[in-house]
Amino acid sequence: MRPSIERIQELFDYDPEVGLITRKISYGRAIAGQCFVSPDIISVEGIPTAFAELAWALHNGIWSPEGYWVDHKDRIRANGRIANLRLATPTQNQQNKAGFGVYAKGVTCRFDGSRANPFQARIRVNGKRILLGSFEIEEEAAEAYRQASLKFHKEFSCV
Fold first, then answer.
1. Where are the strands (E) in the chain, listed by range?
2. Which CATH fold topology does 5-88 show?
3. Most confident range, picked from 54-58, 126-130, 147-151
4. With respect to CATH, is domain 93-156 assigned 2.40.128.20?
5. Which tens digit of pLDDT belongs to each residue from 34-85?
6. Pairing status of strand 12-15 against strand 41-44
7. CA 70 to CA 77: how far, in whole Å?
8. Reduced to 3 states, what is the DSSP secondary structure of residue 159?
9. In this structure, is the dihedral angle defined by the CA atoms of residues 148, 153, 75 and 109, taken in order, positive or negative?
């Protein structure tokens, strides 16, 4: 159970321009003046709370609704400024993640020596994987993913 908004406003200050949360009062092992930056986990009366969630609540006067997360628009978790935070469903949050590995996000290589077009582009939309095509060049596959991501994921697109 999360503390009330009134209680967290008694306990913490949030600077939305800088992205800094400061503890206002001491209690238990918590010390007044302690500063937190994203992506810290902050103990709020013994409840571990993500920095972004607490910043959102302090700034907006409400906790994020059930089923929503606080997402970092620029994908930089250390950027806790309010201008960088927005509500997102878990799916939208995943769409906003950068690709990892050798190939661009949404691109895989199926090179076995016999394929003319070894690079495949795929995207997930509403839980379903969609094959966007097979391509000879990785950049072509990446462009197909980019266009589909902008079409389907809109502002949560990570391209």
1. 12-15, 20-23, 35-37, 41-44, 47-50, 69-72, 85-88, 107-109, 119-125, 128-135
2. Homing Intron 3 (I-Ppo) Encoded Endonuclease; Chain A (3.90.75)
3. 54-58
4. no
5. 999 988 899 999 899 999 999 999 999 999 999 999 999 888 889 999 999 9
6. unpaired
7. 11
8. coil
9. negative
Dihedral through CA 47, CA 50, CA 53, CA 57, nearest 10? Answer: 50
Can you tell me the distance from the alpha carbon of 86 to that of 106, in angstroms, rounded to the nearest whole number?
A: 24
83: helix, strand or coil: helix
Question: Half-sphere exposure of residue 98, counting CA atoms within 13 Å on the CB side?
Answer: 9
> What is the percent of the chain where pLDDT is above 70?
91
Return the amino acid letter for 139. Answer: E
pTM of this prediction exceeds 0.90: no
